[in-house]
Amino acid sequence: MKTKTGWEIMRRSVMALFLRELKTRFGKYQLGYAWALLEPLATITILIIVFSALGAHSYPGISFPVFLATGVIINSLFVEISNRSIKAMEANSALFNYRPIRPIDTVISRSLLELVLHVAIYAGLALLYVGFGGEFGIRNMPLLLMVFLLMAIFSCGIGVLFMLVTDAYSDADRVLPMLTRPLFFISGVFFSIQVVPREYWPLLLWNPIFHGIELARSAVSTTYSADQVSLGYLALSAMAVFAFSLMLYRRREHGMSLR
Amino acid sequence: MICVEKLAKSYRTNNGVHRVFQDLDLEIPTGAGIAFLGRNGSGKTTLINIIAGAEPADAGRLYTDASISWPVGLSGGFQPSMSAKDNVKFVARLYADKEEIAQIVDSVRDFADIGEYFEMPIRTLSSGMRSRVSFGLSMAFDFDYYLIDEVTAVGDPNFRKKCETALTQKKEKGAGFIVVSHQMDIVRKFCNMALVLTPEKAWLYQDIEEAIKVYQANG
Lengths: 259, 219
Description:
The structure holds two protein chains of two kinds.
Chain A: H1 6-26, H2 34-53, H3 64-86, H4 88-91, H5 103-131, H6 141-168, H7 172-180, H8 183-186, H9 201-205, H10 208-219, H11 231-252
Chain B: E1 2-13, E2 16-28, E3 33-37, H1 44-52, E4 59-64, E5 68-71, H2 84-95, H3 101-112, H4 127-139, E6 145-149, H5 157-172, E7 176-180, H6 184-190, E8 193-197, E9 202-205, H7 208-218
Parallel strand pairs in B: 3-7, 3-8, 5-6, 6-7
Antiparallel strand pairs in B: 1-2, 1-4, 8-9
Helix pairs in contact in B: 2-3, 3-4, 4-5
């Protein structure tokens, strides 16, 4: 058997895990991949009904369903990656018998999978909406894709940190989801920074997810303003969190309990 | 070659720390067969798991330029809802180039010889069928070392014979073996040296017969 470089071994391991996860997640259902679309569709429909009943604010240049769906999908990208990483070690413990698989591969492959799924779900929802006569147009494709990518990198970094924390303190698997749940309410999933009084902005704008959601909205609208948020901030926090998580992982990997 | 240097491992139990081994040095030359002998709980499987990379050591180093198999016959890594074929593909993706995957799948299918069950979810297979698949999977690659932890106890006599033949072929091709077994005929066949693990210390013997004698006297 030929020896491979570390990079090549990791690439293979991540790809193999990616395909395995894809197959196990949807393979057993008869509707298969349709479920990936139906689940968020149900969530968004319920939210639209609830917020319409509450007399939700609507914003110029973007229809309410698009406004909401963009928030839900970007937020869900973060929640799915970070929360699934908590269980990544436990769920894959039997796989560590295969030498090429390292703990971080499981988090990276899941992040990749969620990124692909969320882009596909977003596109699927958009097509569905347009099919039913809704108005949707991508004004800035590079920005939209960049936001998805940066959000995945940011979430992957948080995911690696969550994995390390759970490895060190086993109770963390209960605490961490509790900590991330409130983010749904402060990440601007169902409101815009424009309706928040200026003095509260600093309370919201530290949160990179907020930036991601508002940027994505501005990418699918000609007039939706993203003046208060910045791509630079999102990029910087994604890179910083990812780099920090890798640094910590490097120090901790050797002693991680693999079973 | 596999080099183990000053390896230490202990477990925390309710009655304090249990030292499995300490300051263990070991050199397994290319193509050598080594048996780990000792009573239950002496750390044989722990040592195999550390060499497999499936368990971290507390201290010490292990280095090698060789390819090492997962414990032969391991089926715990299988995903129950995926077919045997897809599980095989998964492992093939880890260890082989893209072009070799189809050929590996075919060789496992032939070896396992379980007909259409090869396309069925793993959870629908009997444990015997599962071990046929997992053993076939281990044999589909040419590793420099094979880790064997009591594997030859599975399956019907015909299949056991088939497994032994496959392993013998690997040995003839120059593969090394790291064996944990209570069956001395297996140990004699694949090993030329042995590490006898006792609660106090691990003793390395270059003569397999001598090692077996010591082990049986103490066991």
